[in-house]
Amino acid sequence: MPSRRRRQVELERVLGTPALFATAYGNVGSSIYYALGLTAVYALGLTPLVFVVAGIVFAATAATYAEGTARFPEAGGSASFARHAFDELVSFVAAWAQMLVYVVTVAVSAFFVPHYLSIFWEPLKTNPWDVVVGALVIAALVGLNVVGVQEAARLSVTLAVVDFATQVLLVVLGFALVFSPEILTANVHWGTAPTWSSLAVSIPVAMLAYTGVETVSNLAEEARDPVRTVPNAYKLVAGAVFAIYFTLPLVALSAMPVERIQGELTTRLALPPEDGGYANDPILGLVENIGLEGTALHALEVYVGVLAATILLIATNAGVIGASRITYSMATYRQLPELFRRLHPRFKTPWLSLVLFAGVGPVLVILPGDVNFVGTLYSLGATLSFTVAHASVVRLRLGGGEEELLFRARPNLRLGGVEWPLFAIVGGAATGISFLVLVVQNPATRWVGLGWLALGLGGYAVYRRRVLGVPLRETAKAPPAFGAALALEYRRLLVPVIAGQPSDDALDVACTLAAERGARIVALSVLEVPLDQPLGADLAEREQQADRELDEAVAIGESYGVSVLDRLVRARDAGSAIVDEARARSSEIIVIGAPRRRLGRRERAVFGRTVDYVLRHAPCRVLVTSSAAAEAAS
What's the mean per-residue pLDDT of the chain? Predict the structure, then answer.
């Protein structure tokens, strides 16, 4: 029975590199449905070149997130990096910028859903109907998340794969039917169309392609072996995004070239629908001008319209979930008041965070009905957050301890005894300059964006100093978000696992506790690496054994109807790794098995010294179980 259950779990495992890539691309890839038109408004015939530049910056940013997430495999992205590299104040700035990104992600994704559904009713692509339907989409998704309806992860992954395949199909059709180097060359009017100032703004606007780049980082806690899977997933995402954003704009500008319209050099890709353009639904515009006719054209329009609306709907929901998660995390670290992480008494969801930051905020953003404002506001928050992430990786490299890094992104330059991360330095300079360009060039974006930051910093200072009496730069975590009467109803359980009956018994006890409250268990396997070997040493045989035990832990959880999250980590000492994991996840109890028998000379007494260390240093309660079978054998 255990072996059969183990094989089933191995087939169903969803957070390896391919699944992380598919989940991330489901968010990142959705941006093409609005970023192409928004960027063309500013870049015109230079849109393909601008996306190449944005792609290079994206690759540098992906490298930064890969190293940061592999080093600290916890949710939070740039806010988490900043907390470890600098202090809580810088972490708040990054988190508050992320919050703005999530608010605008919800707004822009929902705003473009009706544009692609206009294939069924044309008024949906213009005001006021796009604003009305967009607001209804936001309200519906917030309501569903408040009552606790879960996202279908497998459906999201499947649609992400279909989405990428569709984009590749459009590229292939475009290169076969309309691609023209001559037209692309004629589209370029240096300094005129676009002007130099518009070109400067177009680069940060093109960073809309970054939408969802935090996804892999936030999923790091869900991945079994994040040190390996997270960097590989980022590489795949960066490659796929660069491939699409390098080729699809070439096709689009070949199909809808720069021409003189109403006395100005522009492209229909950059014009609103009332002027006969496709800025509100650029991919549908590409389909209509790709060279197909009749039934084939109509079928492709319906297919792309429905797929785009569905992908954008999922991206909107991902933004809603992201906004609630970042709010909960900020409240946990005392960056926001406690009430923002209080759960609904019936649905057990952070309803206030959902309503305020995923509902009211995004609706206010789309009320003016200005797609350009929405795009530039997103880019303002994103470039600030990414700049903090780049600076954090540089600062962490300066802090030393590089010999313990399990993953180091490239390229690097060794100078003065430091491996300088060139990707972070170049990426940070690019995103920092882009942030300044947006602040200088766009008055509406400047005042709204800076006003958002000023409001957040002011509230943070008042809450920290007046309410908590805690220094602004000090890291402080809130206690568990439920009262003393529920203290024994554990919601976050950590179970270290190794081969043997004691570990299975501990998991059984943990599953019994978790089943009563529908809690989640984290099954942790620690690979102890000797001091004479690097942390990244090849331990294939031991990794395979650990994978088998983790598969079995997941299967045991399923037999109880309990969700078990499996995690494999490398460390010098199992005890300290268990304590660190419990602290990082705010675990409320550690359930650990201890054999009551004397170990042979050649056996490692992992749960001998380990149990003692955990009992002395654990940040939460510890429940030690003993194996009756082991006791009888001794």
Answer: 84
